[in-house]
Design goal:
This protein is an alpha/beta fold. It has eight helices and eleven strands. It has a single domain, classed as NAD(P)-binding Rossmann-like Domain (Rossmann fold, 3-Layer(aba) Sandwich), CATH 3.40.50. The chain starts with a strand and ends with a helix. This is Sugar epimerase YhfK.
Length: 215
Amino acid sequence: MNILVVGANGQIGKHLVKLIQENGDQARAMIRKQEQAAYFKDLGAETAIANLEDEIDVIAEAAEGVDAFVFTAGSGPKTGKDKTLMIDLDGAVKTIQAAEKANVKRFIMISSFDTSREAIQAAPESFAPYVVAKHYADEWLLNTDLDYTIIHPGLLTNNPGTNQVTLGANVERGEVPREDIARVIYTSLKNDATIGKRFRAVSGQTPVEEAIQSV
């Protein structure tokens, strides 16, 4: 399987590319700058230079020949509302449209833990734009014909992965290592039973492969 990782230079993205390569599949890291390529080439991954603020055609060209898209990109906590709009909403929607244009059906979206209307209303003023962006990006994906999976991770940490998670529609808030979210993504890609599903992911006591079976 050849997998385009959008947001590959982020922390989840780097874990995911490494995991894909270690398991005999092929990652293509979508990156913004050529100087970011060395890390991925050392892993044996392909790279494609494209920016989420580029036209849809540029992203679609980066995906030529791939079997799946994974959207792990995010504007980050230190950017303003403008970048939240351009990356977490418009960038996500353009990536979805690029997948359609490239005739790639499989699409995994990394969202926010709770993107419901209630979560928007309850969010602090500084965080609400992010939740709004994720809400509408999720809704756009849900209304396509793509073979989607939407993963709603808990509070992300840089702790070492444990390969132990709790997955489900209504799990309580909690932390989860980025490394474990990468494993949830990769395992979801390998299991067609996750197509058309959306679920939350936090640390737990169930091995990832077993937990995926029950979503």
